[in-house]
Amino acid sequence: MIVSKYEIENLDFSWSISPFTKSTSLVDHLRNYGFKEIGEVPHMGLLHSNINKDQLTYELENSDLEIRKISIQDLDDYMNPFSIGFGISDNKQITNGFKKLLADFINFIPVNSPSGLFLGYVNDIPVCTSLGFIAEDVMGIYNIATIPKFRKKGYGRLMTTDLIIRGINANVKGSILQSSEMG
Description:
- The chain has 183 residues and is of the alpha+beta class.
- The protein contains 6 helices and 6 strands; from the N terminus they run ααβαβααβββαβ.
- The chain has helices at 2-9, 26-32, 53-61, 75-85, 92-108, 155-169, and strands at 43-47, 65-69, 116-122, 125-135, 138-146, 174-178.
- β4 (125-135) and β5 (138-146) form a beta hairpin.
- The longest helix is centred in the middle third of the chain and has 17 residues, at 92-108.
């Protein structure tokens, strides 16, 4: 179903596999659908039992960053720092493909879920993004992007911290961060 949606839209599609992937036959299954291995994506894992939640909460509360979970109506606000932060703003096909994927994600996630798309604001200006998704006992952390003017101020770290806290509050055991080469 997912693959056919991307074929209809004529969009590229990728799937990340890690040592934590439950199904050992997933690689073979994806190859049968025409997927090819294209390289490795940097990622890190963190057990929540090693975290001082109070310290992380203190850092968030004492920053100038306000983090809001967004709804489908706010998706355009999210797309600007997302596409600029990842350097894809000039490629409308990729940007529109991500927008459709993220809209589907928002519609899939229940409103009260700790999973979702999050937008970081400084002085009410959207400057950074994140996506958190809880699957089983893990908070997956994705789409940490900051527009260039606001980089090197710790906002990406704070967006990551926010998702870790959301995972801790949801009683998941750990978080996995998928990062870019720059991140």
